[in-house]
Amino acid sequence: AAYRRAHELPGWYEAFTGLTPRSVWRSLSAGELLPGPAAGLAEDLGSGPGIVKDFVKSRKDEWHEACFVPELKDVDRLAAVVGRFVELQGEFLAGGVVLRAYEPFVPGGEARVWWVDGEVARVTAHPDTPDRLPAPDLGAVGEAVRALDCRWVATDMALREDGAWRVVEVGDGQVSGLPAGDDGEALFRALLGPSAL
Question: What's the chain look like in SS3?
């Protein structure tokens, strides 16, 4: 239960409301189609661009085809992107379909913040941008992590164009990747606690 709470968006979203892009979702099994038009799911997000993903992953490498929707009110485009996303995920669709309001982030990569027992254990580069290490403002994020009540959590944070640091993803620490060249020793020491030093 703790793994899903930390790793799947519906499990962590409420604790991070206001710190992460607005999101809506519908549970869906692999191979299943949305029971109604994707536009119905998008209604609560209003107009503007959006992102399609499942409870864990997006298909950002197929940005225009299966991830980004320039206007959520464009029902044909939304249906095409959601349909292609579900098709490409196939048997690997995790939990269902999520629509998120798009927020523009500045170039420069993401930071991955590792939390142990609700406290920052380490800040690393994101595995996708191992050569860049932004310094996020953790502000209210610690409170959200503690509210989640999971022992080992990773939060991916990115700087929005207006200067606000945002939580892009939350993950269970045991399956979140480290950047290339990081052996994880410092992180594992934090998990073991002071007696391991």
Answer: CHHHHHHCHHHHHHHHECCECCEEEEECCCCCCCCCCHHHHHHHHCCCCEEEECCCCECHHHHHHHCEECCCCCHHHHHHHHHHHHHHHHHHCCCEEEEEECCCECCCCCEEEEEECCEEEEEEECCCCCCCCCCCCCCCHHHHHHHHCCCEEEEEEEEECCCCEEEEEEEECCCCCCCCCCCCHHHHHHHHCHHHC
